[in-house]
Automatic annotation (TrEMBL), chains A, B:
Amino-acid biosynthesis among keywords: yes
Tetrahydrofolate dehydrogenase/cyclohydrolase NAD(P)-binding domain residues: 145-282
Protein name as it appears in the record: Bifunctional protein FolD
Superkingdom of origin organism: Bacteria
Catalytic activity: (6R)-5,10-methenyltetrahydrofolate + H2O = (6R)-10-formyltetrahydrofolate + H(+); (6R)-5,10-methylene-5,6,7,8-tetrahydrofolate + NADP(+) = (6R)-5,10-methenyltetrahydrofolate + NADPH
Similarity section: Belongs to the tetrahydrofolate dehydrogenase/cyclohydrolase family.
Domain Tetrahydrofolate dehydrogenase/cyclohydrolase catalytic, first and last residues per copy: 13-126
Length: 284, 284
């Protein structure tokens, strides 16, 4: 595909995310100055998956830079569901911990849902509990799943009209596709959930004003799947730093598009930090 | 609109519902014979709305016929959120109560969500809690919202293929539109949520293999909104026993359609009774 001369505007998450972190850091400092309490994020890593370990370390580093304390729990790969639930319950009850992040995926022998549910919703700053999901769906107070919440912030920052827009979500995972659809619906978009069993996927995507790709397949969404002028959110992050959208093709059709990396990714971690400070303020 | 000669097959809920109730009654009897425990549904009615009182009485009568005990709580119209929450908490803790039904809508001064959340998910046989919603969305164990769950039963009974079908849900209430969409998604349908802010609603409905009307407006969905052969589920029940779908028009285009009354309605109450017996068996 050769360039047609028009190219989409990039939706850059990096600067917006940096602003969010700066504000969270200010609030963390204020809280500590006024009450002596430093917001604390507990990270729980099970097993020795390299990518997971890298993510956790990155989150800890960012926390530190924002003046947020961190507690690191690392459990062996053969940890049982019961052991992990016990650990998460302990952190949920620990008054010095304000936010809990269970790095996922967890090893296959663990019931991931049971583990997530052991996190007190008041400390669920990653928005993974059933309570968090229902709260997003019903507009009730609660923490947002970080990537979906970050995507909504990005759409707002770029003044994308959501009311009445047709948003097509590709993928239906419990912490990405499903909640982002519910948040878009709460913003009065018309929302279509698509997935691996969807027929005529490209035709459906072609009706979208907003496309959220959350499918985990490199370059899955092609340029000719898009309606000219569509807003394209790429929540994928596949091997080789490649998103779920074929960027070069899509950028010639879309009006706005998130780059990978530098689009959705930075928003995710910033929301995690922001929500950790929220939790500390509320739990204080 | 004059008849074209082809008319949709009716999806009758009445017989299927009667079968479900008969099975629930058998199980209730067996439980009582074996353990001495009679399943018990507590109904809570706030205020003196005539329609609500009628619904509650009907549910109690049906329970009785199925060998399910009932406990009736009637609170004055000026009940506060705190008072209602206290009552629901008491019922949640009462070992002799297995299922709790809060008749809604509740009077305007009450925080309905707070009231619903006072119901123990283990007794939430009407499927109104946030836990029930997330369980439906994630395929986790829990009770289904009765109307959505009843609709799925009806679709199954009439062998409507759901996998890959495009289902358009009109309406997004927490106990009807949102959960029915999640149940359809869990059955591998492609699901579009539409609502009052949706643009070009008729055009979107026209793409549906399955239409679920849950909007509460008499005769809202017209015949020319439907794709020929579509399956039409009318979850509306408006003044004058009229559904949300213009029945005469729709029946000439659809392949299958629920009548009002006698379609979705009977399924709702049957699932309530079935889930009350489920709860009693589990809580015993």
């Amino acid at each position: 595909m050769t360039s047609t001369g028009t190219t989409a505007q990039l939706m850059i998450g990096t600067d917006l995310a940096a602003e969010m972190v700066a504000k969270a850091a200010e609030r963390a400092k204020k809280l500590q100055d006024e009450t002596g309490v430093q917001p604390c994020l507990a990270t729980v890593l099970v097993g020795d998956d390299l990518a997971s370990a890298t993510y956790v370390r990155m989150k800890q580093n960012r926390s530190k830079k924002a003046g947020i304390g961190s507690r690191s729990v690392v459990l062996p790969a053969e940890t049982t569901t019961e052991e992990l639930v016990a650990e998460l319950t302990k952190l949920s009850e620990d008054p010095e911990v304000h936010g809990i992040l269970l790095q996922h995926p967890v090893p296959a022998q663990i019931d991931e849902r049971a583990a997530f549910e052991a996190i007190d919703p008041a400390k669920d700053v990653d928005g993974v509990t059933m309570h968090a999901f229902a709260a997003m769906a019903f507009g009730e107070p609660g923490f947002r799943s970080c990537t979906p919440g970050g995507i909504l912030r990005l759409l707002e920052a770029y003044d994308v009209p959501l009311e009445g827009a047709h948003a097509v979500v590709i993928g239906r995972s419990p912490i990405l596709g499903k909640p982002v659809g519910m948040l878009l619906l709460a913003s009065n978009a018309t929302v279509t959930y698509t997935h691996s069993r969807t027929r005529d996927l490209a035709d459906i995507v072609r009706t979208a004003d907003i496309v959220v790709a959350a499918v985990g397949k490199a370059n899955f969404v092609r340029g000719d799947w898009l309606k000219p002028g569509a807003v394209v959110i790429d929540a994928g992050y596949n091997e080789g730093n490649v998103g779920d959208v074929h960027f070069e093709e899509a950028a010639q059709v879309a009006s706005l598009i998130t780059p990978v990396p530098g689009g959705v990714g930075p928003m995710t971690i910033s929301l995690l930090l922001e929500q950790t400070v929220d939790a500390a303020e509320r739990l204080r």
